[in-house]
Amino acid sequence: MRVKFDRDTCIGMYQCVAEWDGFEKDMNDGKADLVGGEEEEPDVFVVEVPDGEELDAKFAARVCPVDAIEVYDDDGEQVV
To answer: DSSP string spanning 11-69?
Structure first.
């Protein structure tokens, strides 16, 4: 499973940070950061979800008020 995060869309509500340790606050920019994320395209980051953290990653995506977070299964299908 992997997470795709559009940092440009993020408005810094930090609800994702409360749901999953895969996100952290960047108080300088007023946005969240995807921990260990690799930049796939400008301001879009991806990371593989560690085993056992899938549910937390899904919750982080579901609580994002601007849908800046997408979750994909191992087959590449979007699940959130």
So the answer is: -S--HHHHH-TTEEEETTTTEEEETT-EEEETTEEEEEPPTT-HHHHHHHHHH-TT--E
Q: Which amino acid is at 55?
A: L
- Average pLDDT, whole number, for the chain? 98
Q: How confident is the model at residue 47 (pLDDT cuts 50, 70, 90)?
A: very high
**Per-residue pLDDT tens digits for 12-33:** 999 999 999 999 999 999 999 9
Which domains are seen in the chain, by residue range?
2-72 (3.30.70.20)
Contacts of 14 (CB under 8 A, 6+ apart): 23, 25, 32
Q: Is 77 exposed, middle or buried (0-12, 13-18, 19+ CB in 10 A)?
A: exposed
